[in-house]
Write a structure and sequence with these properties.
Layout: E1 7-15, H1 18-28, E2 33-36, E3 40-43, E4 49-53, E5 66-74, H2 77-89, E6 96-99, E7 103-109, E8 115-121, E9 140-141, H3 144-148, E10 164-171, H4 175-185, E11 189-194, E12 197-201, E13 209-212, E14 228-235, E15 249-252, E16 255-259, E17 265-269
Parallel strand pairs: 1-4, 5-8, 10-13, 14-17
Antiparallel strand pairs: 1-14, 2-3, 3-4, 5-10, 6-7, 6-9, 7-8, 11-12, 12-13, 15-16, 16-17
């Protein structure tokens, strides 16, 4: 079983227009800009979103594997409501809003069509657990008026500083193959499974990684010069946690790089 201290530190995305993407993530989502040059920008609390500029970006191709969405975990419902009010005021548009039982979530896309989830967790003691283990997750309509009532007035320009990347959802070519890799090799715990999707985590969380083939069954990774996921950075509390993962990756300068079944790059460090 993977070490329970696992957290997601950073996600790196390649984008078609750096200025456009920085403006979107900063002005619409409220992620502060921590560092910026002509080719790269770090945004968010602790700079945990890395945007990388592409020279001559290719158009994303439907049916490829890669990123489904990056999910930003808010510390409470009021923080999520503030983000929603900021988004609407900036002219942002939602793609959907769902109650998943364990969480309440809003969905939208960035300027390159890369998925974003904004969510907050319900208290763990309210999560339902089936007899077989894991957690019960479902999709129902989200009560937006109830959510918005938790934060009234004008939100500040920046997202709540307690917000972090809670999970990353991947588009994969074969869910069973990806599950075998993440669960049976790397040691992530399977928490839930549904048609063409599975969810895995450390320490009993509902999921740190989502795996689905809804749009990508049998697909291949997108072009290297197309906008999309470039890397997910995970961290552990101590160096010993890396040892069980060493057979699946290459170690360098204190971190371990592992490549997933569909070419996704995972970086583990302590």
């Amino acid at each position: 079983m993977i070490n329970p201290t696992l957290e997601i530190d950073r996600v790196a995305l390649a984008v078609g227009d750096l200025d456009r993407s920085v403006n979107f993530y900063n002005q619409v989502l409220g992620l502060p800009v921590a560092e910026r040059d002509e080719r790269r920008a770090l945004l968010g609390p602790d700079g945990n979103l890395e945007l990388l500029a592409l020279e001559h970006p290719a158009r994303p191709v439907r049916g490829t594997t890669g990123l489904f969405h990056v999910a930003w975990l808010h510390p409470d419902r009021a923080a999520l409501a503030a983000t929603l009010r900021r988004l609407v005021a900036a002219g942002g548009r939602l793609d959907g809003a769902s109650d998943h039982g364990v969480s309440e979530a809003l969905y939208l896309s960035d300027p390159d069509g890369l998925g974003i989830e904004l969510y907050t967790d319900r208290p763990r003691e309210r999560w339902q657990h089936p007899p077989t283990g894991g957690v019960v997750m479902y999709t129902a309509a989200l009560d937006l008026p109830s959510l918005l009532a938790t934060f009234e007035g004008q939100p500040g320009p920046e997202i709540d500083p307690g917000t972090k990347i809670g999970h990353v959802h991947l588009k994969v070519s074969d869910v069973a193959r990806s599950l075998e890799f993440y669960r049976d090799r790397l040691g992530f715990e399977e928490q839930a499974e549904m048609p063409s999707a599975a969810f895995v985590s450390a320490a009993g969380y509902h999921h740190h990684l989502g795996l689905n083939s809804w749009e990508s069954r049998g697909g291949a990774p997108g072009a290297n010069d197309a906008p999309g996921l470039r890397r997910i950075d995970f961290s552990f509390a101590d160096q010993e946690a890396l040892e069980p993962l060493e057979p699946y990756g290459s170690a360098e300068d204190g971190y371990l790089d592992v490549t997933g079944p569909d070419g996704e790059l995972l970086r583990f460090s302590a």
